[in-house]
Specification:
Blueprint (H helix, E strand, L loop, with lengths): L1 H9 L1 H4 L6 H29 L2 H47 L7 H13 L15 H4 L37 H39 L6
Helix pairs in contact: 1-3, 3-4, 3-7, 4-7
Main location: membrane
Keywords: Cell membrane, Glycoprotein, Lipoprotein, Membrane, Palmitate, Transmembrane, Transmembrane helix, Ubl conjugation
Family: Belongs to the tetraspanin (TM4SF) family.
Length: about 220
Amino acid sequence: MAVGVWTLVEKSDYISLLPSKTYATSAYILVLAGAIVMVTGVLGCCATFKEQRKLLQVYFVLLLCIFLLEILAGVLAYIYYQQLNDELKQNLKATMTSKYGQSNENEHITQAVDKLQQEFKCCGSNKSTDWEESNWIRSAHSEGRKVPDSCCKTIIKHCGRRDHPSNIYKVEGGCISKLEKFILEHLKIIGAVGVGIACVQIIGMVFTCCLYRSLKAEPL
């Protein structure tokens, strides 16, 4: 649950730059599995303390559901790990040039791009000149900027009017490779947590079966 919430809260800006929902779905599945774990933990304690076979049956089914959810999160993370590079190449540049600075409904995209460029010290999708194709740069709203101010090494208003390497992240390269590396590392965490917790659930299910068999059948 902690990993899922961390992904959705701390990394939500970057999620908005990805056209696929697989990354976010994996995090939601971890949160759901975490919530079920909390309920299951209480139920498991009650079943063990009261030694009731029916409660143990319910506990086993919930453990199985958690196991399947965690495996699903791990598989989704692995699948997205394989297709991330192509997706970023096809969509990140288009998203940055067509949606940046365009209307209030795309404000979250603008904020995400600004945060991306500042945190990873990059400018543009592949290179800083990508911004020449931006609808916002070509419009009057850019006020003569050649790149957004978030490309600047030191942000001050209208600093994007000067695109010299001493002023912007020009030689540092574009953001695709850096965002890809960041997300791939996080997908490894999601996948590892999903599969790791799933393995723990297998142990729980085995012990539940052992306890179930050791208890006498309840009278009808």
